[in-house]
Model the fold of this input.
Amino acid sequence: MASAIVLADQAVKALVGRLLPLGDSVPLIPGIVALTHVRNTGIAFGMAGGVPVAVPGAIALTFLFLLFYNRPRWTRPPLARAALALLAGGAVGNLVDRVRVGAVIDYLDVFVWPVFNLADLAVTTGSALLILALIPRREPEGAASRRGARSNRSD
Done:
């Protein structure tokens, strides 16, 4: 899944770069969403613009290292595996931009949030899913004793 996110992200960014000049915007649903070609030289949401490419690159590589270093702790549940794939795919997709053009190519404009891209969406969704996957689940009262009673029955 991670490689599919990277490929889809880079394909859309290539199309936006080829068909929409930097700074131009095309409404998809007027007043709701537009394709707007911008380059983000900042860390996130355009904050801290103009930082050297090495800074966000180091952040992304550290993030990926931590994800995969701790992978055995959270990749057992399917939800955590999906979250990890989304996080990794999104981080790599934006890292490719940083290395290739020195900034992240953003294009989704919803007018109430900074312009973002598919990789950002994957990172945000993956973060939310990972939080959900890591929340400890408590069994309802009596579930353990009912389960134990079933396994102790002799047939």
In short: Strands lie at 25-29, 33-40, 104-109. The chain has a mean pLDDT of 81.
